[in-house]
Amino acid sequence: MSNNVIPWAEYNAYNLRKNIAKVKPQMAIAEGQFNEIGNFNIKVDKKSGDRGQFLSNVLMHQRNDTRPGNYTVIIAESGELKSNPNSNILQLVLFNGNYYEEIYSKKPQEVQKKPAARSYFDTYTMNVDLEALNDVDLDAKSYTSRYNMLDVGGLNYTIDSLYNNKSIEYKNLAETLYTRTSINTLNSSLTLETDSIFKGDVFDLFNTRTKLQTVNLALNTISSTAQIIDTKQQFLEVSEKNLNKHLIALNEKYVLGFACFILFFVGAPLGALIRKGGIGLPLVIAILLFLTYHFIGIFAKNSAEDGTLNPILATWLSTLIMLPLGVYLTTRATNDKGLFDFDSYLNPIKKFLNLRPKNSVIIEGELVQYSFLDAYHNEKLINVIKNHDDLDFDQSIKPFALNQLLKRNQTIEDLQKQGLIISEDFIRSKKEATDTVDYSKFAFIFYTIGVILLILHLIFKNNKLPEVASAALDLSIISLLIYILYFVVTFIKASSFYSHLGLKVKPVNLFLMIVGLPLYGVSHFLIKNKIKEDLDRSSILNIK
């Protein structure tokens, strides 16, 4: 299918479309882009009418067979295409416009004056002879060399030719630039001698006029060389894009076959693993997976056309991403396991980030939960803090009982009046801990926003939406700058927290903070948990 049927379909569809455009010129005019009709390139902002015959904001370039280039330009506010079934003439009537033409002259003196003609018109009628279009064969196949029309043999041959042409172009450019330097003939008529007396700058040996001539010559040479490089660069970018399209087309013929197998080993296990929801849930998951595969492929290939990604890698990327998913789902289906075992993935993450259930602590490797404190009244919670040993509770229960009291709108002053002894160091360190966590939370929010906008910038840029991409980049930079500001304040507050903690523990390390700067999505939780643990240790010692 990839090597024969798809190229054959592309070949016939493209030629039929071109032939229809010849017979129906108004159909060949697309809005917002230049279109070729006869000897004219025409661009319109908008088409209207039942046949698309009314045009607005018309811009035309007229070609001349004896003089290549756009020397005649016609601009009009509106226009109308008129044709008669019994006539071979297509009339294009333009309204309220201007006509510009650069006048050609064989005399160099006249060329320097850049002669041109300009006129204004209310109505301007142009006739296009359609006699040649009467014999258009809709079955004609004159276009045969587009990349999506070729089979593997044709693509391999064309790619090899494009690589050779690319090498020749680079070689010709190098030879042109080398020849323009005149290095190979610079010393052919000179005899080099060393002056033992003069030790200054050679440029000082010339008079002012010669110096100016030399500098102007150098500037003109550099300017013309830069212009040659810019022109050649534009040409090479077009040829590079054409080469990348052929490479993508060649690899797509192989990747489509592999994708059929890999997506089968994604879809078939899903049918075996999803046992609930009827046809609805499997259908939704299947659509989401296919859209993910499809859009990854589109974004990657769009990026590969201009050389941002390697065209071979871009073509295989979506399939390679689906491959491990297919292996994973097939393995789970053959072992008769559920679709997802979230605990096996979440437990290592929870352990790394030190995430535990609410009101719980790990004592000697075992998880101890204090959720029963929710049912205690305030007096009993205060008694637990003051007499935890008599009640056979571990001292780790004190911070949980204290937090439970604070959640019930009990202030530190209220607790002190009820008999709790709370040191000033703990009061200050708790305030600093709250500020540190709050600032870290804001830093995490702006970090997330900045990263998401940066990813959107890359997506918009690769899909040729420069305005939206630029706006996303600006907002991303602003968000990341605000993130860095909150990041710095977080470190300052954390340092202040440890200075008032009254406990010998390792503070937040500046080096580790800097290392965690680009991965604050993880650093935020590590900082938050460390601050909480150290504050709990302080409360055990400073509250009685």
Descriptors:
single chain, about 550 residues, 14 helices, alpha+beta, six-stranded antiparallel β-sheet, 8 strands, about 55% helix, two-stranded antiparallel ribbon
Spatial strand sequence of the major β-sheet? 1-2-3-4-5-6
- Major sheet characteristics: 6 strands, antiparallel
Number of helices: 14
Structural class: alpha+beta
Q: Report the span from N to C terminus.
A: 80 Å
Determine the mean pLDDT: 77
What's the helix-strand series? HEEEEEHEHHHHHEEHHHHHHH
The proportion of residues forming helix, as a percent range, comes to 55-70%
**Whole-angstrom Rg:** 38 Å
Residue windows where pLDDT falls under 50 for at least 5 positions: 131-143
Cα shape: extended
Number of strands: 8
Name the beta content range.
Answer: 5-15%
Topology:
Layout: H1 5-23, E1 35-37, E2 40-48, E3 54-64, E4 67-83, E5 89-102, H2 108-112, E6 116-129, H3 152-181, H4 208-273, H5 280-305, H6 311-334, H7 342-353, E7 360-363, E8 366-369, H8 378-386, H9 397-407, H10 412-417, H11 424-462, H12 466-499, H13 510-515, H14 520-542
Helix pairs in contact: 3-4, 4-5, 4-6, 5-6, 8-9, 11-12, 11-14
